[in-house]
Amino acid sequence: MASNSQRPSKAERTASAREQAKKMHAAQEAADKRKSLFIKLGVLVAVLAVVALVVALVLQKNSGTVADTGAVPKGGNAAGGITLTSDKTLADTSGLTVDINKVGAAPAEGATPTPRDYKAAPKGEPINLLLYVDVNCVHCADFETEYAGQISTWLAAGDVTVEYRTVAFLDGASPTNYSSRGANALACVADAAPASYLPFSKAVFAHYPEGEMKNKQLIQLAKDNGADVASCINDGTFRPFAKFTDAAARVDAIGGTPSVFVQDKLWDPNAEPDFGAVVDAAIKANK
């Protein structure tokens, strides 16, 4: 007669079922945690991808995607300059465009600096000053600190016209293309608020010791000087104009900044260190 094996009691079967259910519940919880973690990681990856895309677009906008053609700001000209006719007014120009593909061929090595579309003013007229500057240039900042007030006085007296051609020679040393963005900001102010151009220009160069400015800072500085140009600065409206100005200066053999011309003659600060005396003499000679 076969022996009877001992069967688990009802209490034992209940305990076993409870233990099995507990294990299954723990396994499900672990699975749910893993799923939740994967979801969170997926969301994080997606967010990081979006951030990376935005950063890439911003960097792209600030660097190599500037159009070859574009509008010239009011007061500007086809040579890439912006001309002040007084301390509060700019040249009466508008509706012009520039095209970098028409800027011309690179100059021969050692070519004489020859600014396009620039000549001495006729006898009896205010003399013409032409300044090539870069907002990220320490020597330009020093020049503006020393002479901006005097330039304003000459302009207010009707003794000079002053043309600024703001280049971007130093963009290569800036991760944010500050030279180009600063040139664009100046063009934005010229286009929207001519009377603010000179005060804003002074403020930009005065800020040099504090380092490069973000667009937000340029916008606020423009606003502080009477120009509301937020969209123009953020959109880079006149970046093609700034790009053309820079390229034209290189083609015209402008070797550095500041390069200052007085009545079609390049000022040599080593030979004639007193810029004020040089300009005063030119004003007197042209009367």
What does this structure look like?
By secondary structure, the protein is an alpha+beta fold. The protein has 2 domains: 1-62; 67-286, Glutaredoxin. The protein is built from 8 helices and 7 strands. It has a 5-stranded mixed beta sheet with strand order 2-5-4-6-7, sandwiched between helices. The chain has a two-stranded antiparallel sheet with strand order 1-3. Strand 6 and strand 7 form a beta hairpin.
CATH fold descriptor of the largest domain:
Glutaredoxin
Spell the H/E element sequence: HEEEEHEHHHHHEEH
CATH C-level class of the largest domain is Alpha Beta
- Cα(first) to Cα(last) distance is 141 Å
> pLDDT under 50 segments (min length 5)?
1-5, 45-63
Q: Taking strands numbered 1, 2, ... along the chain, how are they ordered across the largest sheet?
A: 2-5-4-6-7
Biased composition (Basic and acidic residues): 9-22
Protein name: Protein-disulfide isomerase
Keywords: Isomerase, Membrane, Transmembrane, Transmembrane helix
GO molecular function: isomerase activity
Sum up the structure in keywords.
single chain; 287 residues; alpha+beta; Glutaredoxin; 2 domains; five-stranded mixed sheet; two-stranded antiparallel sheet; 48% helix; 10% strand
